[in-house]
Request: fold
Amino acid sequence: MRASRERGDLYAPDCPSRAVLDHVTSRWGVLVLVSLLGGPHRFSELRRLIVGVSDKMLSQTLKLLQHDGFIARDAFLEMPLRVEYRLTSSGVQVAERLAVLTEWIEDSIGAIEGARPK
Amino acid sequence: MRASRERGDLYAPDCPSRAVLDHVTSRWGVLVLVSLLGGPHRFSELRRLIVGVSDKMLSQTLKLLQHDGFIARDAFLEMPLRVEYRLTSSGVQVAERLAVLTEWIEDSIGAIEGARPK
DNA sequence: CAGTATCCTCAATGATACTG
DNA sequence: CAGTATCATTGAGGATACTG
Reply:
C-alpha cells in the first residue's frame, strides 16, 4: 500500500494542488469547511449560517468539496427528507488549518487597515 | 491606546473581515503572501515565481494587500529602477497561517481524491 | 525594470422558477 | 426539505500595447 509519494507544487499552474487550493479557498468553500468543524449540518442550516450564499453556490461548493474528498454527504430517507454534510478525516485537516486563519482575521480585524471591499 | 476591541464576524456578509478573507484567499493573494515568507521580492521575481499570473493581476493583488496592510512596498531610486515587496508584521501572521494550509495541501495531494479542476 | 491603460471574453455568481 | 434548471449579469482575469 502506497499513497503517491509525489509532493505537489502550487507554483506549477497545472499541478492538481493548485485546483485543490482554489477549491478550499474559494469564496464559500472556506466558510463551509469551517462551519462543518462544529459538526454535521443540513443544507438549510448551512444556507442560513453562511449569510449571503445562494442555493446554487452552496450546492456547487458542497459538490466540489465532496469530490475532493473533504466532505461527505449522508442522506436519511425520512419524511421530510433529511441530508447531512460532514467533514471527512482529510476535511478536518484542511478545515482546522483554515479555522486558524479565519480566527486570526476575526480577532485582528480591528487592527487591519483597509478592510474595505471593492 | 486601544485597538478596536470589536471582533469580526465572517458570517456577516457586510463585516470587513469577509473582505479581508477574500483578499488573502484570492487566487493570487495566497501565493503572493506565501512567497514573501521567503523574504522580500521584486515585482519581476514574483511574476516569474508565481507561474501563470499576469502583470495586471499581480499588480492588483499587491495593491490590495498593501491596502490591507499585509504588504509593504520599498522603492529604491536606482538605475534601473528597483522595487521590493515584503510582508509587514501582520502580513507575516496571515502568511504563516496560509503556509500551514498550502504545505498541507502540497504534502497531501497524492491522497486527495478529485484533484481535477473544472 | 516596474508598472499602467485598454479592450475583450468567458466563467463565476446570483435571481428566479421548478422538481423529487 | 433538498436541491436542479435556466437565464442574465458582471466583474475577475487575461492579452496587448504603452509609459516613466
Remarks:
- The beta strands of chain A are 41-42, 71-76, 82-87.
- The helical segments of chain A are 16-24, 29-36, 43-49, 55-67, 89-108.
